[in-house]
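In response to reviewer comment 3 from the previous cycle, which asked for concrete evidence that the modeling workflow produces usable outputs, we include below a single protein chain processed end to end. The sequence was submitted unchanged, and the resulting structure tokens are shown without manual editing.
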Amino acid sequence: MTHEQESRLITRRSMAVGSAALLASGAVAGYAAAATNEAEAPEDTPPLPWKWVELDPLEAGRRSYRFYKEKGGCGTASFLGMLSLLKEEVGYPWTTLPDMMMAHAASGFGGHGTLCGSLAGTSTIINMVTFGEKRDDYLQNNQIVDRLFWWYAEQNFPTDRFDDLSPIPGQVREIAMSPLCHTSVSRWVMAAGEQIDTPAKIERCAKVCGEVVYTTTSALNAFFKGEWSPPVWHPSEEIEHCIRCHGPKSDAYRARRWNQQGHMECMMCHEDHG
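The workflow returned the following structure tokens.
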């Protein structure tokens, strides 16, 4: 082995040892921090469901509208619009949740255009207050979320409910058609002649967050009063023949071959071959 080769080997060994020491010290520090945090934790987080109290739907919606602009993103805006009130009205365990827990849901989760973040934030709260381990409770939980998404897809956004807060009242309205961010936003942008980064689009999505939170809060208030009953899903006229063949099964529709899942509009992704 030449002197040069030996030097390179020693350098590599030094780097390896140094890296291992760094990782080890980081692990120890991380463990110590974790141990400290664990020691400072007030008590164990209780199992779901967590306590719900009647909230003011309009106040929750107005907070969500503002949070969309102040915090950025529909996931945070919708989640925090409800969470902030629950922290004030209930306190623990809601106070253990970070405000920015749903930040990743913005723009359809990381900008991917999938589920609208306003539905992600609100459905998280729905699950946390209605979850039950019994099958009936589980189905009930699912029904509330499913009907919220169905309502969203049929909604003509944005409403004028928050126009008193908006610098752009009376905006063009367009049916979302789907709970997907990509569909909901793209349809509106094309109908309004706007672009994704314009102030008008920001206003539209802030109002959508407010409306979704307003509707969800109203539904949960009614649910816990025993006044909520799930609306029965029915396919639109455009996809009724699709459901008869492909499901989902129901009392009205006995699918020939139940090979699809969901309540979304078929023609957004499929050609009509009926």
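Strands lie at 156-157, 174-175. We consider this sufficient to address the reviewer's concern, and the full set will be provided in the supplementary archive.
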